[in-house]
Write a structure and sequence with these properties.
The complex is a heterodimer of chains A (about 325) and B (about 325).
Chain A: H1 2-26, H2 32-57, H3 66-90, H4 94-105, H5 109-121, H6 127-150, H7 162-170, H8 173-186, H9 193-216, H10 227-252, H11 256-267, H12 272-280, H13 285-312
Helix pairs in contact in A: 1-5, 1-9, 1-13, 2-6, 2-8, 2-9, 3-4, 3-6, 4-6, 4-10, 4-13, 5-6, 5-11, 6-7, 6-8, 10-11, 10-13, 12-13
Chain B: H1 2-28, H2 33-58, H3 67-91, H4 95-106, H5 110-122, H6 124-158, H7 165-173, H8 176-189, H9 196-220, H10 223-228, H11 230-254, H12 259-270, H13 275-283, H14 288-315
The chains are: A mainly alpha (about 325), B mainly alpha (about 325).
Chain lengths: ~325, ~325
């Protein structure tokens, strides 16, 4: 019972925030455009601050996390490759293939990983998770673009423009925040306390407003015609993938906060960026959007389930 | 003594950085006008109620031996409010400005200035009395502030001299901040403890209010408009930062308050206005710009005025 309530407490606060955002829109306190603006603010200002603050002030010994980073990156790439091989066997609609593969490997690591690890281990352990963001975000972006391009319909097929992808990565505010922070740490550039405090003030706000605005953009439209794909996507993403990846992670010896990072990396629901990218690539954007909503809603069950099991076995 | 000066600046700087950041972000195009309005609305309807709720809910007031301080503090707040409501109409004609100036007089940023000031002067001996005042001031600030704003709002809306009591009460009790305060009082008096996860959720939402509100002030800030408001700023700032605390200090000294108790009262009256004043004013149709300017300039000047009060009262041996 204590383990179960531990698992619930780890994820319930996240979902309460999403609910608050959802209700604020449903009850017409705020329109969707407000949440879009907040999301933009989070992406351009708040999230870079959060990344900067944590990398700058955590005295991370990056070297000791090399195994975790390698495991994370290899895991994501393997999922993408396996997806590209197996999804086309069962999914016949060309526009849906890329979306389903993307759903497998791309997760909302930022919004779910950081608050979840904070809830389980406390604020002082999110340093490695934040560091992971710096590695994972570029990988997600590159792989997402490659996979969607791979399944693009042949007429009018665009080639993957790597210059474009690289440009997107290095103008991504989150990556810029991470790079600047690493520079400050490596060159040991001192900062006034009040500058760090202010960045910290904004950083503290980030996950709260990010989750609220995530909830505010949710719509449960009729998804009947896509139901088979959604059920499949939810089961794969939330149960199959984390079950396999966590087993491997446990065998490789990851424990505690590092294992929780693996859970967030492979068990978190879909990210909004997948939807945006799918739409731009001419894939089935509607399905991508529905997958995000449904994986997020059901992630409450799956995350509680996995935390419960990992905790009962004494791994976290 | 040097420490009380550096403390004053330490309290002011982070606030200024956030306001400045809002100003810059607006110029860079990240904070369009419409967004700032909505951020204010979010603070007013969601984050500030959570903050007020949380502050009252977590204040463990053990009134017992300090009932004198509590009563004096409450009377001081009500007294300042009453006197400014009597005097301000003679100095200022427009209702939206009267409302803002009146609220400015009694409402202080006790949490970011008063409490750290008490801690800086007396350590834990200072924090105790200050946090006793915190609960009562949070309650009174919000009730009085909302009532004054609602009164002027109703007056403007109806266009008449008198205000009907029913719509006024309705608008007060529909206010989320008041609901938050009332809820906290109910939980406190029934000694109901929130489950852990709710406690965290509320405190996370509450944390949004101050940084976002301060950035909104900065985004809205306009030097030309501040210049045009010079007269009102003079009235508001001299009243808030010098006259009101001076009068309260004199009476308090006559009543026999010394040391940490006097320090708590000084923290309550001499602190500059908080971002709440701005959000409430903007959301309730008062002159939000003026309210924002009062917060910005009041915060800057308070570093000097608060230091001055501490210096003076220390030299006279009262603190």
């Amino acid at each position: 019972m204590a383990t179960f309530s531990f698992a619930v407490m780890a994820v319930l606060p996240l979902f309460l925030m999403i609910f608050i955002g959802y209700f604020l829109r449903v009850f017409h306190v705020f329109k969707e455009s407000f949440f879009n603006e907040v999301t933009r603010f989070c992406f351009k200002v708040a999230m870079p601050c959060l990344i900067f603050k944590n990398i700058y002030s955590s005295n991370l010994d990056v070297g000791s996390y090399v195994p975790l980073v390698v495991f994370g990156i290899t895991g994501i790439i393997s999922l993408a490759v396996i997806g590209c091989l197996f999804i086309p066997l069962t999914v016949k609609d060309q526009k849906k293939k890329g979306v389903m593969v993307q759903n497998l490997f791309r997760a909302n690591f930022f919004f779910f990983g950081i608050p979840m690890i904070t809830n389980i281990f406390g604020e002082e352990h999110i340093g490695p998770a934040v560091m992971m963001v710096a590695f994972v975000v570029p990988i997600f972006n590159i792989l997402g673009a490659v996979v969607l391009a791979f399944f693009q319909e042949h007429e009018g097929k665009k080639r993957v423009d790597f210059k474009d992808i690289l440009h997107n990565i290095f103008t991504n505010p989150i990556i810029i925040g991470a790079i600047i922070a690493f520079l400050f740490v490596l060159l040991k550039i001192p900062l006034f306390d009040f500058v760090v405090d202010v960045i910290g003030d904004i950083a503290d706000v980030t996950t709260t407003i990010a989750l609220i605005s995530l909830g505010g953009t949710f719509k449960f439209q009729s998804a009947k015609h896509n139901m088979p794909y959604i059920i499949r996507g939810v089961l794969d993403k939330l149960f199959l993938v984390p079950a396999i990846m966590l087993t491997i992670a446990v065998i490789l010896g990851f424990r505690g906060p590092e294992l929780a990072i693996c859970l967030a990396l492979f068990g978190a629901p879909g990210a909004v960026a997948s939807f945006v990218m799918a739409k731009e690539a001419g894939a089935d954007g509607e399905l991508a959007g529905q997958l995000i909503v449904f994986t997020t809603a059901f992630a409450f069950v799956s995350l509680v389930f996995f935390i419960f099991i990992l905790r009962s076995l004494g791994f976290i | 003594m040097a420490s009380s000066f550096s403390f004053a600046f330490g309290a002011v700087l982070p606030i200024f950085m956030l306001v400045g950041l809002g100003y810059i972000l607006r110029r860079l195009g990240y904070f369009p006008e419409a967004f700032v309005t909505l951020i204010n609305k979010f603070c007013f309807e969601v984050a500030l109620p959570a903050l007020v709720f949380y502050n009252i809910y977590t204040s463990n007031t053990t009134i017992g031996q300090n009932s004198g301080l509590l009563i004096f503090g409450a009377l001081a707040i009500c007294g300042i409010a009453a006197v400014s409501l009597l005097i301000l109409p003679k100095l200022v004609k427009e209702s939206p400005r009267r409302a803002v100036l009146a609220q400015n007089m009694f409402r202080s940023n006790f949490i970011l200035f008063g409490i750290p000031m008490a801690a800086n002067m007396y350590g834990n001996d200072g924090v105790g009395p200050a946090s006793i005042l915190l609960a009562i001031s949070a309650i009174l600030y919000n009730i009085l502030g909302t009532a004054i704003m609602a009164y002027y709002q109703e007056k403007q809306r109806s266009g008449k001299k008198s205000v009907h009591i029913v719509p006024l009460l309705k608008s007060i009790f529909k206010n989320h901040i008041i609901i938050g305060a009332a809820l906290a009082l109910v939980l406190l008096s029934l000694q109901i403890q929130l489950p852990n996860f709710l406690d965290r959720t509320v405190s996370d939402v509450a944390k949004v209010a101050t940084p976002m509100g301060l950035m909104a002030v900065g985004a809205h800030f306009n030097f030309a408009r501040a210049k045009a408001d010079f007269r009102y700023l003079m009235i508001g700032l001299s009243g808030k930062l010098l006259i009101a605390p001076a009068i309260v200090m004199i009476i308090a000294i006559f009543c026999g308050f010394r040391g940490p108790l006097l320090g708590a009262l000084l923290g309550m009256t001499a602190s500059p206005g908080s971002i709440t004043s701005y959000v409430v004013a903007t959301s309730m149709d008062a002159d939000g710009d003026l309210a924002g300017e009062l917060v910005v300039f009041g915060t800057a000047l308070s570093a000097f005025t608060m230091f001055g009060f501490i210096f003076l009262l220390r030299s006279l041996g009262f603190l």
